[in-house]
């Protein structure tokens, strides 16, 4: 008879609590949704098929070997096991929460993108990817995996959401934040059906995509970004108002050098090629490519752990508005595609 480790017992209790929270908040009803957690490199725990998340017991949670896909015991794991398994094979995430939030499902059934109405929504959620879903069970999990490279939260159209994280608290937080953001967007439209943020409107009118393509992180690439920033009146205005004077570096993992933007009142006076700034924004090439292509939000990449920020994010958020604009220019300079 297999012995149950202390870790398994703890994780099972956490899964039970998460299931009840999803049910109590209306994010999962009846027998919808599934939850899993990584035990170790080889095994996970996942809710069994046909279970009520709001009334789980330890017997409703199945141990599954990631390599073989075989469950332990006579309980059948959730039909979404292939999706959960693929997540753990592609990401270091320790938990996966899949649920069917009613407002999110309703909103994204008719809309392609979320118009975040609060700074918190923009800061922690960004542009949440939406994956087409045509069956009750996810049959193309590889599409979800690609979307999770952009954001730790993905919407499955006409189905639900998938959130990954290192702990359940974080997966629940972004799921609940999206449900609240959708609610805010819906309420806002009751007051004004033509809502369009002023900054977004200006961005659409003024930004132009460059024709030339650069090698990613070449000097020409970074200089082209700086040139766009320095031509922008909005950044200059907000930078002067908010005292945007600091050194901000961007760095590619594995590269000993960094590009340091020397901001003085919203203008980049010079670019140094060394890592000597109080704020250093860094990450792997794959994630930088996602940022420069506009698929990964820069602020969200930090709050969700896909990129690293040396320095206090809270201090940088003082200049959230101008930096949102700066980061928008990151995707306006074309980079050469991988061949």
CATH topology of the largest domain: L-fuculose-1-phosphate Aldolase
- Counting DSSP E segments of at least 2 residues, the number of strands comes to 14
CATH class descriptor of the largest domain: Alpha Beta
General shape: globular
Order of helices and strands: HEEEHEHHEHEEHHEHHEEEEHHEHHE
Rounded mean pLDDT score: 88
What percent of the residues sit in helical stretches (DSSP H or I)? 40-55%
**Level-2 CATH architecture of the largest domain:** 3-Layer(aba) Sandwich
| Rounded radius of gyration (Å) | 22 Å
Summarize the biggest pleated sheet. Answer: 7 strands, mixed
- The computed structural class is alpha+beta
Q: For this structure, what is the CATH homologous superfamily of the largest domain?
A: Class II aldolase/adducin N-terminal domain
How many structural domains can be distinguished in the coordinates?
Answer: 2
Verbal overview:
With 339 residues, the protein is α+β, with helices and mostly antiparallel strands. It has two domains: 6-191, Class II aldolase/adducin N-terminal domain (L-fuculose-1-phosphate Aldolase, 3-Layer(aba) Sandwich); 199-335, SCP2 sterol-binding domain (Nonspecific Lipid-transfer Protein, Chain A). The chain is built from 13 helices and 14 strands. A seven-stranded mixed beta sheet has the order 3-2-1-4-7-6-5, sandwiched between helices. It has a five-stranded mixed beta sheet with strand order 11-10-9-12-13. A two-stranded parallel ribbon has the order 8-14. Helix 2 runs parallel beside helix 5. The longest helix has 24 residues, at 168-191.
């Amino acid at each position: 008879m297999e012995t149950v480790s202390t870790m398994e017992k703890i994780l099972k209790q956490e899964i039970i609590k998460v299931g009840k929270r999803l049910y109590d908040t209306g994010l999962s009803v009846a027998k919808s949704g599934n939850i899993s957690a990584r035990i170790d490199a080889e095994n996970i725990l996942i809710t069994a098929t046909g279970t009520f998340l709001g009334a789980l017991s330890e017997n409703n949670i199945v141990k599954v070997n990631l390599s073989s896909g075989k469950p332990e015991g006579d309980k059948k794991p959730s039909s979404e096991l292939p999706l959960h398994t693929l997540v753990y094979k592609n990401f270091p995430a320790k938990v996966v929460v899949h649920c069917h939030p009613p407002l999110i499902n309703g909103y994204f059934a008719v809309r392609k993108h979320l118009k975040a109405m609060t700074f918190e929504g923009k800061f922690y959620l960004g542009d949440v990817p939406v994956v087409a879903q045509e069956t009750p069970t996810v049959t193309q999990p590889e599409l979800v995996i690609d979307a999770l490279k952009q954001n730790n939260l993905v919407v499955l159209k006409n189905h639900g959401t998938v959130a990954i994280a290192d702990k359940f608290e974080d997966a629940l937080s972004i799921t609940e934040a999206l449900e609240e953001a959708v609610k805010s967007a819906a309420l806002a439209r009751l007051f004004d059906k033509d809502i369009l943020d002023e900054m977004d409107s200006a961005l659409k009118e003024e930004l132009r995509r460059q024709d030339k393509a650069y090698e990613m992180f070449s000097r020409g690439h970074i200089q082209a970004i700086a040139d766009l920033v320095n031509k922008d009146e909005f950044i200059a205005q907000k930078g002067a108002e908010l005292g945007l004077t600091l050194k901000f570096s961007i760095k590619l993992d594995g590269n000993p050098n960094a590009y340091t933007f020397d901001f003085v009142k919203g203008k980049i006076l010079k670019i140094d090629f060394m890592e000597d700034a109080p704020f250093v924004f860094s990450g792997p090439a794959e994630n930088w490519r996602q940022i420069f292509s506009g698929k990964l939000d820069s602020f969200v990449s930090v709050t969700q752990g896909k990129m690293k920020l040396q320095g206090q994010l809270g201090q940088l958020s003082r200049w959230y508005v101008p930096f949102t604009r700066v980061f928008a220019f990151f995707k306006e300079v074309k980079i050469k595609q991988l061949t």
